[in-house]
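Exercise 3.2. Students should predict the tertiary structure of the chain below and write it as structure tokens, then compare their answer with the key that follows.

Predict this chain's 3D structure.
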Amino acid sequence: MPKVAIQGEKQSFHDIAAHKWYDKEPVDILPLQTFREVFCSLSNQEADVGVIAIENSLYGSINEVYDLIEKYRYPIIGEIHLAVHQQLIGLKNSKLDTITKVYSHPVALAQCEAWLDEHLPADVERIEYHDTAAAAEHISLQKDTFSVAIASRQAADLYRLDILAKNIEDNPSNFTNFLIIQPNALPPADADRSMIVITTNHVPGALAKVLTVFANLSINLAKLQSRPIIGEPWRYRFYLVLETAGKDLSGALDAIKDLTTSIVVLGEYRHNL
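Answer key:
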């Protein structure tokens, strides 16, 4: 049974993504508070696999995760695209017009900002918590009818809380992409995507030339993310998610070699919608 490290508690969205990836296979979940702890647990061999959020369709990219992926370079073996529906949950007698505190992960609070503005009192305190499911657990332990959490339906069930309002995310098209990472793993045979990080030559149009090479090879670019190079002001490294893997990826990397100063393949993996 694989031991899977996640950022968050059981019935958090990370937990849901992990079980979706393994489908009906049993897994041993290791709940952790931070993304860094997930990577450290793999480094210390406390877990076999990590599941980490990389991007949300409303909130955007999680830059810390990009930095950790490059630092540790544990191969990416899969990607999960998960629809995220946020619930306002609390104790049975909680009422919307008497709520004074809302607890949740900062990303979840941001996803529900407009709904909170419209439906809760203006002076409600929004308190950041390290995880949505942990926020639900906090409400269940505090037994305070004036405090609520934003979390998943599964978290409400786990902690026996009521759903006071359903699907309160500001946009129903709310998705989070999660990556599955595993030290020393080989690319799966059915890999259909890859993530690379490159540093281009410091000349005008270098990145555009790289992208033109991919276009000429009919390789679709699914994602482009830039991050600053520490110690080199105004220079950037670029993370690219390409819809290719295997021999086609190798050929493409050979074709851009002269346009770059470094190329690192962070994973070839299966994209699971």
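Discussion points: Residues 3-83+174-181 form a domain with the D-Maltodextrin-Binding Protein; domain 2 fold (CATH 3.40.190.10). Residues 248 and 254 are 10 Å apart (CA to CA).
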